[in-house]
Task: structure prediction
Amino acid sequence: MLTCDTYLMPTRLGEALHAWSEAPAGSRLVAGATDILPYAREGRGGDVHLPTMIDLSRVAELQGYEVRGNRVRLGANVVYQQFLEDPTLVRLLPNMPSCAVWFADDQIRQQATLVGNLVNASPAGDGLPPVLTLNGEIELARLESGQIATRTMPVADFITGPGRTELRDGEIATAVTVDAMEGYGGSFQKVGMRRSLVISAVCCAALVKTDPSGRIFEDVRLALGGIGPRPIRLYDIEDMLRGQEMTRELVARASLLPADRVASRSRVAYRRAVVSGFIEAAIEDALVALGAPKPTPEQREALHA
Amino acid sequence: MPEFDIDFTVNGRPVSRRIDPSLRLLDLLREGLALTGAKEGCGAGECGTCSVFIDGKLVKSCLMPAAKAQGASIETVEGLARPGELTPVQKAFHRTGASQCGYCIPGMVMAATSALRENPDAGLEELKERMGGNICRCTGYTKIIEAVEIARDVVAGKLPQTALDPEGVGASWIGHNTARLDAPSKVSGRLAYAGDMVMPGMLHMQVLRSPHAHARIVRIDTSEAEALPGVACVVTADDVPGEDGFGVFVHDQPVMARGKVRHVGEAVAAVAAESVRIAREALKLIRVEYEELPGLYDPEDALKPGAPVIHDYCPDNVVKHIPVRKGDIEAGFAAADVIIEDEFATQQVEHAYLEPEAGLAYVDHDDVVTVISPSQNITHHRHMLADILARPINKVRFIMSPVGGGFGGKEDMIYQGMLALAALKTHRPIRLIFTREESIACSAKRHPSRTRYRMGLTNDGRITAIEFSLLADGGAYGMSSEGVMRKAAILSCGPYEVDNLKVDTKVVYTNNTPSGAFRTFGGMQAQFATESMMDIAAERLGLDPFEIRRRNMMRAGSLTHTQQKLNSAAIDRVLDAAEASSGWEPGAPTVRGSTRGDLAGPGTRQPCTLGARFATAGADIETVKVAS
Ligand SMILES: Cc1cc2nc3c(=O)[nH]c(=O)nc-3n(C[C@H](O)[C@H](O)[C@H](O)COP(=O)(O)OP(=O)(O)OC[C@H]3O[C@@H](n4cnc5c(N)ncnc54)[C@H](O)[C@@H]3O)c2cc1C
Result:
């Protein structure tokens, strides 16, 4: 059971930062509450008492998104369902729709924010790998002598371990800024205990662009989640593929590389086996999103014979 | 108590309240506004029984702080249709029989309504995807999805309005889809389950549970808890006036742990207070001193000499042993051409009914202690409770509330006794609702089992003898174990005529969560072993699996394993129907090779692949060329 003494719903960032800097120790910021509420249950946090809960969902500065040149600034209140339903976001962030469709369900996605997912910093959080492929940077605001000051850092550096981030006392994450990737094919692979409503055991995000001939990898971006304390970008595999002719054989060869990077504490052998399949499938699906034919099971089997 | 002022509209009506901001939207709707159509199935966003619309978007109200409703427009299942009327979705659920226990149904109706509002043209895959956040345990979803498709097509004018009407029955009820009389109350959210009921002056109960699997209770000190303002009473085993003990066969389970705890999650003490929150605070003030005892966690260990004894009355830990003997197995095995031996294990399974255990008890003006609960066995519970409370039977009453899924898991009186004791101690109505975690930790499970199997057969596939020995983990209390073992023994060797058999089923006490009744009541564990053996035998002997079953099946005139003569048997028709509808390719399992034509045919459900919504958006044009 979650209890609190005070529940605040500020509407301006300054107001929120002020309340946050004054809040008694143990208070908490709340976005969608989809991590916080289930945490306060038997077997996890048990009964949790928070002196003050500061709900950010009405803060004007955190709403919506903005396209700035080749970057998209996603306000902290952007929820997962928007990545599935907003045509501009679908076009510019091509691996977010597949990430979103595998994330929880339609109802939770109306509440759950991408930023809440990042700050929660679960090693298996689904939003983390795609944001790494999108070169995401998180924007953090604080009060300095009564004025709002911000700093920005790559999400890859922001998340330091399971449940650990560089968020400092008094700071509120205000936005995530990501690359606009129009023309890329995107995909997301996920496996957990079941299909719907499940936290990933392993997940993998890909973005792929081909040259105008449709035969050469112009750019490839790959990231893995659930394989260690924090998600990782696979720069070496990206380098191996970039500029090369797209062959199924090359993709199959590249997919074998990351298995040794699995550093989880549990189910290591399983995760290793999954990772290779996921890299291959992620690239294939991203190509399929660009219009390539889906390989038949026979083609796949032949490659791995 | 902290306060938060909130204004919002519910089903079109403005509401203004001063609330405790710790409330979730679900609590505010259910407790504050008596809108109990939204249920709490899990409290963690997993099940969808609490789905409501907020500003037109469906959300799970158990995951939403109530304060978030400030200024919003909320629509609950109660607001979908005017009183006395049903929407097309609700009518379609009624029509297809989609509501069984009904507990998931208000949420399901909301999810279906949302799916069709979002896309009135949604296809099957998209409907499944959009409704993926709602769980049902009774229907297997087929009727639910069928209902949504019918509603969609009626609204679109592709089907006539009459497609929503319940099917008429002809001269006979048999062979017709008879409309469920209680369906309208379920699809509209009006049906009240125990956890939906309230009484004036009602107290709330919370239960202190054992963290140990096996421990002696040295002392329980409830004084601090009792002193907490808002607490009405604390009950422990000491409050039991009569003969403490319940169970379906042996009355080996005290209302609350008496002297020792035998499994993790066993009730040790219970608090009755003005609110759930106060009751939970009081639990933290109860001091229990335990002395841990060596425990038993594997049924094989329970049988070893010198094993810890779980119940004093039962020094060998054997709850029940059911032997069945027929014919002469020595002779049977001697006549066999092949003898196959194997071992089979099944695991513990949770029923996971969507309605967690809940009950409401009160003492009426005539001093009748009344317990309302979704008990699957009220008459027996009433008799046991009368003995426990040392009251005449006419002073104890049980009312069965709608069962939001039971599957056998609500046959055990694991909480009704505590409620009755607290009602007697306070003379106030009192309600207890389990959390999902409590329900999983404390209710009975399907018996885990291990079966040793020996089967003799002739080369033409006739069974000559079976030796069958099943050991089940009964957990800490007897519950339905005896009956489960009896059924496992009676059904052991399946619907096959076996002249020579030796069957033993045995269930023992351990310190695991108690095992109890669960659909098939022991049949599943035994049939898993027997049917697996039939397939193994078919492979060994080069016979078609259907054929080997036909050669052994019971017929009219056959003697069952317990030597009852059958007047009729249906297994021949069952096999024919299964063979036809599965599209089975005849032949021994070994002769078919790697490709087979009976897989993935029509009627096979494809695995779920999410993304139906944007799959159609993917262009067919091939712009990318991947060299092979
Ligand atoms: C049934 C269910 C299924 C789920 N499925 C998935 C899944 O498939 N994949 C997945 O990755 N996750 C899943 N989750 C977890 C959860 O929904 C996500 O992590 C979600 O993105 C959290 O966002 P939120 O807005 O609800 O965060 P909240 O619960 O409100 O907050 C999460 C954390 O972030 C902090 N926080 C929030 N906003 C800010 C901010 N602006 N600045 C600083 N700190 C902030 C909060 O203080 C808190 O510590 C699931 C949860 C449930 C209940």
Q: What stands out?
A: Chain B touches chain A through 51 residues (CB under 8 Å). Chain B has 18 helices and 20 strands. The domain at 4-79 of chain B is CATH 3.10.20.30 (Ubiquitin-like (UB roll)). The longest helix of chain B spans residues 523-541.
